[in-house]
Design goal:
Layout (H helix, E strand, L loop, with lengths): L5 E3 L2 E4 L2 E4 L11 E6 L5 E7 L4 E7 L2 E6 L4 E6 L4 E5 L4 E6 L4 E6 L8 E2 L10
Length: about 130
Amino acid sequence: MSHFTLLNLPTFTDPRGALTVLEGALPFPVVRTYWIYGSDGQTRGGHRHRHTRQALIAVSGTVSIYMNDGITEETIELTHPGLCLLVEPKDWHTMTFGPGSVLLVMSSHPYDRGEYIDTPYEGSQHD
């Protein structure tokens, strides 16, 4: 069981494939949506936010998310598009991309560089 919030999104599968539904699942309105791809083997992120909440879904491949809220550190593997990780403003996070991975990110606030906190928590084992 994870210290951080993971949502198992409703997924419907039949011989034609799978369909995953996000409708009504997030605890915040989505203001900004983007996806990261072409980052095979790269680590991105390395920040937390002042106010922004995010929802992360690996729609393809595997993305390892290192999370640190100042108390608990954990690496969460997003391996299925029906799994959604909520990232709260206090959560320092990095994202390491497996081959061919695509990470969908939905944010509660528009992009603002001043919103980012680039200093990791003191004593962090990972940055």
